[in-house]
Structures are given as C-alpha cells and as structure tokens.
Amino acid sequence: MGKVFGWLPGIVRLAIGMVVVGAMIGYVLSAVVSTVINDQGWFATSGESPQARSYMVALLQREADTLTALRPQQDVVSQALARQAAQQSRQQAKPLSLTYLGGASQGRVSVQIYAVEVRANDGSQQLFSLALTLVGGQVVLTR
C-alpha cells in the first residue's frame, strides 16, 4: 500500500483512511439499526385502528361487555341478541389466529379488514375474512 499511495502526503492518506473507515462503519451501523427498527415495528404505521383491534380481540374472546362498549348505543333487545350470539359461538368454534390485512380511513370513517382462523368442534379449520366499519372509533358494521 505504501508504494501505491506513497506519493500522497501522510496527512492526506490519514484523512482518506478515516473517511473510508467512517463510511464503512456508518453503512454497517445504519443497516443494523434499520433492521432492528423494522423488526421491532417501532416506527411502523400499519394503519390498524386500536378500537378495531380491541373489538376483534373481544369478539374472539367473547367479551360481550367490551363489544358493547365499542359499538354505538343499542337498545336492550339488540344487546341481548349480541350476548346470546356470543354464548352460542363459544360452543361452536375456537379462534386460532387473527391477522390484520389492511384498511383505509377517510375522516372519521375507517374500514379495517382481518383474517380469522378458527377450529370447529369437529376439528376442521376454517379461514374467513371480517371487515369492520368504524365511525368515530365505534364499530357500526361488521361483515
């Protein structure tokens, strides 16, 4: 190396060496940091509404009180029907997984789409999608 760069003054060789080493360290450090941030999801903006996630978890865990709190005010008959449906679904299937597929928001209205995998009492597994429509943080429609 001394013969190739021997014609350069020592201080210039030192400066070039520091720049090259600094660039290499910066490249490696930024690659490691960006990988960790992406894996941990620290700055990820998935677009998933916290209310929609809470609703889906409550739906799968059959928590009627939480579901009622995340829906607009309903009459007593609608609340009773929702509780009865939760009791019946408890006997029919066991949830295995919940996956957020995506969604969109415009003002106070947002649509969030999930994939749910369940295991029926007969052992068969099913995968279905569920779309939630939220207005002002309240679930107004489930399809």
Topology:
Layout: H1 10-40, H2 50-61, H3 64-69, H4 76-92, E1 93-106, E2 109-120, E3 125-135, E4 138-142
Antiparallel strand pairs: 1-2, 2-3, 3-4
Integer average pLDDT = 84
Kindly name the structural category.
alpha+beta
The termini sit apart by 70 Å
CA radius of gyration is 27 Å
Compressed to H and E, one letter per element, the order equals: HHHHEEEE
CATH class of the largest domain: Alpha Beta
| Gross geometry | elongated
CATH architecture type of the largest domain: Roll
| Biggest sheet strand line-up | 1-2-3-4
Largest beta-sheet characterization:
4 strands, antiparallel
- Total strands: 4
Structure overview:
By secondary structure, the chain is of the alpha+beta class. It has 2 domains: 44 residues; 93 residues, Nuclear Transport Factor 2, Chain: A (Roll), CATH 3.10.450. 46% of the residues lie in helices and 29% in strands. The protein has 4 helices and 4 strands; from the N terminus they run ααααββββ. The protein has a 4-stranded antiparallel β-sheet. A hairpin with a 2-residue loop joins strand 3 and strand 4. The longest helix is centred in the first third of the chain and has 31 residues. The radius of gyration is 27 Å and the shape is elongated.
